[in-house]
Amino acid sequence: MAIKKEHENEIRRYLSGQLPDAEEETLEFRLLTEPAFVEEFDTVVDEVTDQYVRNELADSEREGLEKRYLATAAGRKKVRFTTELLERAAAERGRAGVVTEPGFFDRIQAFWQVQSLRLVATAAAVVIIAVGAYLISRPSMNYATLALSISTASRAEGPVPAKVKLGSGVPGVEVTLAIPEQAKGAKDYGVRLVGGESEHDLKIDKRDDQTLTIKIPASSLSPGQYAIQLSRLNPDGTSTRIPGSYYFNIE
Questions:
Q1: Which of 41, 106, 144, 146 is deepest in the core (most CB within 10 A)?
Q2: pTM of the model as a whole
């Protein structure tokens, strides 16, 4: 069948692992939804395998094919089958110049072997897409989020602290801290969590001119009140505590 050149190049790049992830997903989706494209795909697979066995591929394509398509059971089986066909053809040509055609049962066997390989290749593509769809669609375990401003009042006198409930499977709390004006422009900051049965320093996950973002794992949080203390690090290596705290409650 006639194959568009751009389709052939795309399939060849897919088989040798040179296609970007987004284009791979598009190609695999077409294998599930476009029968005509499946025929093109199978034809290119036959051609590339034949060229591989005959050692007619460029080194880069050959190496990519070995790492991607030929690393699969379907690819290895395809190479074995193609090699056997070529060796059989060479043996037939070498019989005293006598040209013999494959017998009826040989042609039937070869036909069903090819169809089986095509079904395996298509089934493998379906499995890849199904796994990808599951990973994309499954519920993600996102951190609970909080956005806090510093308060110089005590817990009793200040505003009601923000509340967050950690449901089953939630890995923790992602807290965005607004940097107070007097603390902006520091070279670096120190963040400390106070509450529960202990207190410890926290790693800053993200930072910009206005905010700091930290992630507190659920294993460090039990129901109760917490305060986050902020310090600015001075050029001489010392730190200066910023007055006030960021308050929140875990329910």
A1: 41
A2: 0.44
Sheet with 204-207: strands ordered across: 144-148, 172-178, 211-217, 204-207
Pairing of strands 144-148, 172-178: parallel
Render the burial of 22-37: b for 16+ CB within 10 Å, e for the rest: eebbebbebbeeeeeb
Q: For residues 251 and 244, give the distance between their C-alpha atoms in angstroms, rounded to a whole number.
A: 23
DSSP 8-state class, residue 219: G
Domains, in order of start, for the chain: 5-137 (no CATH), 144-250 (2.60.40)
Plot region of 59 (φ>0 → left; ψ -120 to 50 → alpha; else → beta): alpha
> For the segment 139-180, what is each residue's pLDDT rounded down to a tens digit?
446 888 989 999 887 655 667 788 898 887 788 999 999 999
Amino acid 119: pLDDT = 61
Give pLDDT, residue 195.
83
The larger pLDDT score, comparing residue 220 to residue 156, is at: 220
pLDDT the model gives residue 140:
47
CB 157 within 8 A of CB 245: no
User: How many other CB atoms are found less than 10 A from the CB of residue 13?
Assistant: 18
